[in-house]
Amino acid sequence: MSRIELRGISKRFGDTPVLNDIDLSIAAGEFCVFVGPSGCGKSTLLRLLAGLEDPCAGEIEIDGKLVNDLPPAQRNVAMVFQSYALYPHMSVFQNMAFGLQHRKLPAGEIERRIADAVRILQLDGLLQRRPKELSGGQRQRVAIARAIVRQPKVFLFDEPLSNLDAALRVQTRLEIARLHRALGSASMVYVTHDQVEAMTLADRIVLLQPLAGKKDAASVAQAGAPLALYHHPANRFVAAFIGSPAMNFVDATVQSLGDGRVLADAHGMLYAAQLSPQGLAVGEPVTLGIRPEHVLLGEGAQRARVSHVEHLGEVSHVYLELPGVSTPLLAKSACDDIAIDDVLAFDMPAQVMHLFRADGVAQARGDAAERSVDAVDG
C-alpha cells in the first residue's frame, strides 16, 4: 500500500502558472478524486504524479520515496487515459501482455495476471478481439485491465469516462468502484470535471479552484470526504460546484445577530441561519445559500409565485420568483401537480442555510449546528 505526499507543488508552462503551492496527502488504499472545472490543473497534477511532467517547485513522494527524478516506469504507477491508448494492431490479450513481456515476466505469470484481470473486469470472450471490434465501454475496461496486470501501487485515471455515453458512464463508474474494493491495497487517484463522479466514487475529494487571473495559478479550494464538502463547503466556489442541481444564492444584509443564529434581510424577506455570528456585523452584505433539496414547499410563512416547472418523473424542479432577485429560487418537489403561476408557501430552514461573506468564505457553524445539518440527509 502506497501513501502519496505532495509538498509545495507548483507548475507553470512558460509564463503561464498552472498550479500553485499544492500540499496534499493521499492515504494508502484511498480513492482520491481531483475534481474541478476545465482549466484548473487536474490533469496536470495527475501527470506530475505519473512523471509525465516535472514540477517547477516542490516534492512528490510515493511510498516514502522521493520520485521527482524518477522516470514513469520506475514509479510503480499505472495510468488509464480517456483515449484508451490501446495498440490497434494487437488483440486484447496482446495489449494486456505487452508491458509484462517487455519486463520479461514468465509466460505462466503473464497468463495468471491476465486471467485475474479478465475475471475482475468480466472480459471473457474478448481476448482475441482487436480494439476496433470493441465498444467504447469494452475498450475502457481493457485499458483498466492493462493497468491491473502491472500490479502497480498507484492507479491514475485521467477522465476515463468522458468518451462514453450516459448509460455506459454509469455502468463503468460502478465497475471502477467495484475494482477499488477488489484491489483495496492500491491507491487510486482519479481526475474528472463531473462532480457526480466525484461524489459517488471518492473516499476523499480534492476540489481545485481555477485561475482567478492571469497571474494566479490554481489551488486547492477544499479537500475532504464527499459529504463534508456537500454539507460544509469552505467557500462559495465549493458550494456552487458540489451538488446537483447547484446551490441557490441570494444576496442579503445582516439584520441581527444572536447566540448561534444570524437573521438576514433579502429584499424585505427575512431568513434565519443557524450559524456562529462571530466576526459578522449588523448591516454587513452577505450571500445566503441553500440547496434545492432543502427548500421546503407547502410550509412556512414566506410565499412566492412559480415561474417555471420541470417535471422529471420522480421529482419536479420548481422555480420560485423572489422579490429583487433576478435568478429564481430552485426547489425540488415530489409533487407533479405544481403549475406555473401557482403561489406556494415555502420555508428555508435555518439549520441548512449557508452564509458567505463578501470574500466568498463560508461562515462557520457551531458544533450543535453541524450535527443538525449532518442529520438532515441522514
From TrEMBL:
Keywords: ATP-binding, Cell inner membrane, Cell membrane, Membrane, Nucleotide-binding, Transport
GO molecular function, one term: ATP binding
Presence of keyword Transmembrane: no
Keyword Hydrolase: no
Domain of life: Bacteria
GO cellular component: ATP-binding cassette (ABC) transporter complex, substrate-binding subunit-containing; maltose transport complex
All copies of domain ABC transporter, residue ranges: 4-242
Pfam families: ABC_tran, OB_MalK
Record-linked PROSITE patterns: ABC_TRANSPORTER_1 (PS00211), ABC_TRANSPORTER_2 (PS50893)
The name this protein goes by in its record: ABC transporter
Protein species of origin: Candidatus Accumulibacter phosphatis
